[in-house]
Amino acid sequence: MQRLPARRLRHASPADFDLMHSLRSKGLKATGPRLYVFHFLRDNGACVPSELANRSRTFNRASMYRTLKVFREQKVIQDIVIGGKRKVELTDRYTYHHHHMSCTRCGEVISFGSQKLEIVLQEVSRLKGYKETGHQIEITGLCPGCQRGVS
């Protein structure tokens, strides 16, 4: 397993070790840009790729986009559409399985998980004869704040 400096190791999560093992098994390293992108997405959720590239003052845009390419290939991240915008987020391997609610007025996005919903989706797949390989659900509407502003 790739070694982390002691200062990083103290704050490493099981997902960090999983990422490092996964990268190393493919002959890749846990570089600064890769760890930055991983931690940013873990801590902040889905974001537009250009927003991610603009936030780092340490790494250039090319490094960020190369990192996103490697992460897509290694199934660390996935592309999703939320509120009509293409975003990237960590795959279920590195975060809990969830769906999104987005406000059509202010753009607020909330992640949520529901075991009952997952059971219903499995049942629908079974009834229709599908072997489910994945799904994404987005509920759109008005958040509580925007509802208060609606007449």
Layout of helices and strands:
Blueprint: H1 6-9, H2 14-25, H3 32-44, H4 49-55, H5 61-73, E1 77-82, E2 85-90, E3 99-103, E4 109-112, H6 115-127, E5 138-141, H7 144-148
Parallel strand pairs: 3-5
Antiparallel strand pairs: 1-2, 3-4
How would a crystallographer describe the biggest sheet?
A: 3 strands, mixed
- How far do the termini sit from each other? 58 Å
Number of helices: 7
> Can you tell me the residue ranges where pLDDT is under 50 for at least 5 consecutive residues?
1-9
Number of β-strand runs: 5
Name of the CATH superfamily of the largest domain: Winged helix-like DNA-binding domain superfamily/Winged helix DNA-binding domain
CATH fold label of the largest domain: Arc Repressor Mutant, subunit A
Structural class: alpha+beta
Percentage of residues in strands: 15-25%
- Give the CATH level 1 class of the largest domain: Mainly Alpha
Strand order in space, largest sheet: 4-3-5
Order of helices and strands: HHHHHEEEEHEH
Global morphology: globular
Average pLDDT value?
87
Please compute the radius of gyration using only Cα atoms: 18 Å
- Please indicate the count of domains: 2
Helix content: 40-55%
CATH hierarchy: architecture of the largest domain: Orthogonal Bundle
Describe the overall structure.
- With 151 residues, the chain is of the alpha+beta class.
- Helix 4 crosses helix 5.
- It has seven helices and five strands; from the N terminus they run H-H-H-H-H-E-E-E-E-H-E-H.
- The chain has a three-stranded mixed beta sheet, with no helix packed on it. The protein has a two-stranded antiparallel sheet with strand order 1-2.
- The radius of gyration is 18 Å and the shape is globular.
- The N terminus is likely disordered.
- A hairpin with a 5-residue loop joins strand 3 and strand 4.
- 44% of the residues lie in helices and 17% in strands.
- It has two domains: 94 residues, Winged helix-like DNA-binding domain superfamily/Winged helix DNA-binding domain (Arc Repressor Mutant, subunit A); 56 residues, Dna Ligase, domain 1 (2-Layer Sandwich), CATH 3.30.1490.
